[in-house]
Amino acid sequence: MLSTEQIINTMSSQGLRITDQRKTLARLFAESPGYLTPKDVYEYMGKTYSGLSFDTVYRNLRVMQELGVLEQVVFEDGVKFRASCSEDHHHHHMICLKCQKTYPIVFCPMQLADAPEQFQVVDHKFEVFGYCKDCAEHAPAKVASGHQHSHGKH
Ligand SMILES: [Zn+2]
Ligand SMILES: [Zn+2]
Ligand SMILES: [Zn+2]
Known about the structure:
The protein has helices at 4-13, 20-31, 38-48, 54-66, 133-136, 144-152; strands at 70-75, 78-83, 92-96, 102-105, 127-130.
């Protein structure tokens, strides 16, 4: 994951003004192991910067994501952000639903997608959700019941 300095350097090298707020955001993300919702970030920032609006916070998250220092994942309960992986190249993620540990994967299914001609692809997402080794034992029961069911018909 990117460090506070790496996030700040990338933002400034791409022409973003490094305000005190953006420094705080960089530090917050570099030091957070899991994902943060825009609300988490807003509440954290509100402790230091009173009168800060949710829109301002959200706009900063957007800008940071567009610059590639934050990665965004849409979970079932909404969109969340974390500092980008140190992985430079295009990659996707495997994400543990319990501890939110994220593993970069270099496989990209886009090369296998037979997009219709004339369809101009601007973005694509591919995320795999599951349980890491440490969390697997606490995971909900496997889909074994569905398997049993199909056998039960005979
Ligand atoms: Zn990543
Ligand atoms: Zn886990
Ligand atoms: Zn891809």
